[in-house]
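Q: Hi! New to this. If I give you a protein sequence and the SMILES for zinc ion, can you show me the bound structure?
A: Yes, paste them in.
Q: Okay, here:
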Amino acid sequence: MTLLIRNAHAILTGLPGAASRHAGPDMRIRDGVIEAMGALSPLADERIIDARDCVVYPAWVNTHHHLFQSLLKGEPQGLNQSLTAWLSATPYRFRAAFDESTFRLAVRVGLIELLRSGCATVADHNYLYWPDMPFDTSDIIFSEGEALGMRIVLCRGGATQSRAIEQDLPLALRPEGFDAYMTDVERLVGRYHDSRPESLRRVVMAPTTLLHSAPGAQLREMAKLARRLGIRLHSHLSETVDYLDAARAKFGMTPVQFCAEHDWLGSDVWFAHLVKLLPEEITLLGATRTGIAHCPQSNGRLGSGIADLLALEKAGVPVSLGVDGAASNEAADMQSEAHAAWLLQRARKGMLAQPRYEGGTFEGGADAATIEDVVRWGSAGGAQILGLSRSGTLQPGMLADIAVYRLDDPRYFGLHDMAIGPVACGGRASLKALLINGRMIVENDSVPGLDLDALRVDAMAAVKTLQQRALA
Ligand SMILES: [Zn+2]
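A: Thanks. Here is the predicted structure of the protein with zinc ion bound:
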């Protein structure tokens, strides 16, 4: 069974340099894999997607999310707080309020929001685990992903020790035992982890916040177990200056040095944020090929800053994009995230301008990131970081994870180069099709069988329920 994407107006591939665009205009998909690209004649009985006036992208790979937060958007107590105060005000205050049905609904809302932005793969950093938990959040994430046909990388978060902000709070905020954590990671790997390239289920070792979630000796054991099991490692790191202060006060070293001391650097490791780094930390991350999940919208919303992707990429750090949780990013979709990454890298460079009479040689920040760079970070970069060897780029032999954007909103009218529209114009372009492993998951901008209006009503009711149950 083959499928032909025909007459695409433009194709971005996720590859670097001259290969970032392909003339197409056609792509043939056979058995879930891109078989050919070029001028192709339709075969008899071949299914055809008419991509005239459409722009084709590799489906996005989102490398950092917290799906449970999808019902915590714009929560007033945390809306104008920086990271630490926001953590107490929103995610921690609402944590115990989730039950099986609200958790499942939050996951579903988040996955559908991502799908409709053209995203195929999500690495969900789930940290809703506590002792004697009455429902299995890991299983819910995998089953909701499976129902939609998405590629799910479960980053098994959690903590084996408490932070000060968690003291005197209910069971749902207490840490797990170290043995219970390790046993559960092994259980999840045995039950769900599929290391084949076309896999829709992966598991990652991901204690929530490396500096705070477990003692150093345990972090070393976690890294050892992950490498024995052949899974990747992920955590939050250096989102704000608090990380530098905490690492110096607690351990007498920088956060990245702390990672090095505990075997938490390498091409199988990636960290969310990396906003506040010292130059020697960037060098060490690059030398070890440790990756970044860049989350510009969340970093902006929380006032944390803007990661220096130029310096990181130059040092050798693999770069990817993540939307982070919706409690700190009300537009938790990959098109918005890519748009923000594009603008903010340019703004960041522009902010370094010094007047020429003070010796400045500033030439402008507009060369900080091209649309092709941002697409590469959001697709190929993510696939590399997650170890998905046949996802993230559009070329023969790769899995058919493909977004076909229609650009039928006035926002996209008048473009001289339609290829850049989905990122440069922002917003959410309607999807002619989203394919994952060659399967049509979104068709003519809707998920077959999904009642969006019912989902909206359920989400409104769930927000009320959560507000009633949240801690004061
Ligand atoms: Zn996060």
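A: Residues 64, 66, 125, 236, 272, 324-325 surround zinc ion (CB under 6 Å). Let me know if you'd like me to explain how to read the tokens.
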